[in-house]
Amino acid sequence: MGRTTTCAGLVTAFLTVFSPTYLASQADGDAVRPVAALPGEPRLVAAAGVTRDEKPVLTIENPGAFDPTDTKRRVVLIGAPSGDSATAIDLVRWFKTRAPRAIRSRWTLSALPLAQFDAADKQSLARWTTFQAPDLVVTIGSVALQIDAPVESIAVENAATAFEKLLSQPRGVSALHRTIDERVSRQPLALARLLARRYPEAPGISYIPALSWIGALRIAAIDKDDALRTKVLDQMEPWTSGEKTLFPAATRIQLTSVAGAMAFEDTAPALFDEGVAAASREKGPALPEYGQGWTDDMFMAASVLARSGARAGHEADLERAARLLIAYAAKLQRPDGLFNHALDGPAAWGRGNGFAAFGLVETLTRLPQQHPLRGEVLDIYRRHMAAIRTQQSPDGSWRQIIDEPGAYREETATAMLLGAMARGLRRGWLDPSYHDTVKRSWRALAAHVAADGTVIDVCAGTGAGPTKRYYFDRPAVTGPDDRGGAMALTAALDTYELERR
Length: 501
Fold this sequence. Notes:
Blueprint: H1 10-16, H2 26-37, E1 44-50, E2 56-61, E3 73-79, H3 86-97, H4 101-106, E4 107-112, H5 124-130, E5 136-140, E6 151-154, H6 159-168, H7 175-184, H8 188-198, H9 207-223, H10 226-240, H11 255-260, H12 269-280, E7 282-284, E8 287-288, H13 296-300, H14 302-309, H15 315-332, H16 350-366, H17 374-390, H18 411-426, H19 435-447, E9 455-459, H20 468-472, E10 476-479, H21 482-500
Parallel strand pairs: 3-4, 3-5, 5-6
Antiparallel strand pairs: 1-2, 7-8, 9-10
Helix pairs in contact: 2-3, 7-19, 8-9, 8-21, 9-10, 9-21, 12-14, 14-15, 14-16, 15-16, 15-17, 16-17, 16-18, 18-19, 18-21, 19-21
């Protein structure tokens, strides 16, 4: 499929690139698609979750949930699980074709025609509805929903008349809509400052605190903030003073810990060199000694090796990073450009694709233009970004499984892919048509970071799983989270650097 560069073009993307499970319910799909294709909003076919047999719970959405310049009120229409989807679909058709002009000029609509989630799924309905930023929720029949916005119920009989009556009444902006608007209106540097002061809450040697420390030191330099710099150095002091070792003798070394050494590149060169030595060890050609063969390795090893290889006399480390990325892409990058998490992890896991993207941009940032491997690494990156762009959800985020519309919209995948794309734009690796994708994903990320720096819907730590169901079922963390904070901080800084340019 060709590139999609405008919001209007997203209709085609969302109707053509989903996996076969997307249309598992042919009856629902056949009913939803023609209504979505009618002129006007809502027009994007997506999903709010999946059933146990991985059937998507279909939605029809508009792309404006995170647009703070949109002055219309937002209404969400939900069909009760005890009913059928026909009434909600008919109301969407009524809204797009027969609703009074005064109503359509005041309201935008998203719809979940049938909220038929599994009984054990306690999150998907509230999660999807919340991030539609509604001023009003209208249910057709009884729907159990707690949300910080008005909820009204209508009956199937005379549904259009009841719906029109509700939309004709004056409505203010809901508390939830105001909260979302406040989040997405923040500038990247402001959000980065917030996160740098909060994270990491649990300092240690892994890639997670390392990303927060690196980001916080960048902000301290931008702001000339000695207090923030001191905070970072104090957190690192147990290792820089020698009180703690980088890799305790009694502990099995993990590549996540090896990646933590990148934080010491400028502050403790001896510790950084220890990390480089560990990242350089291999148990096979282009297979890190402490790796698992997952896309995670593409970042964990390359983040250290590429930094080392940028130093005079250490060019072999940069070569090693490039060859590792090429070898992993040969095994894990699919013909469509997405990455499966592992050979035994047959799903395009969101953060797994983020790790691949991070490793690629970290290495490309330092790989000389004339390097013989640069063209191959750059091609892997560009194919990845082209595939990622077609899989962006209607609100601009990316999902726990990238190409599964029913997978939840996940914070770290959104942050990492946004950051990788923003850096590619800034450095000229991507053409300007990616700007709209970056803008929309920035708003989606900001919507998932609360005013106090806590984060929403961060996939818990995840190894390789044998089925897609494994990835669908990985829990999401909401609250303080070092991983989610570090990824959002890194993405905010890459977005800031792009806007500054």
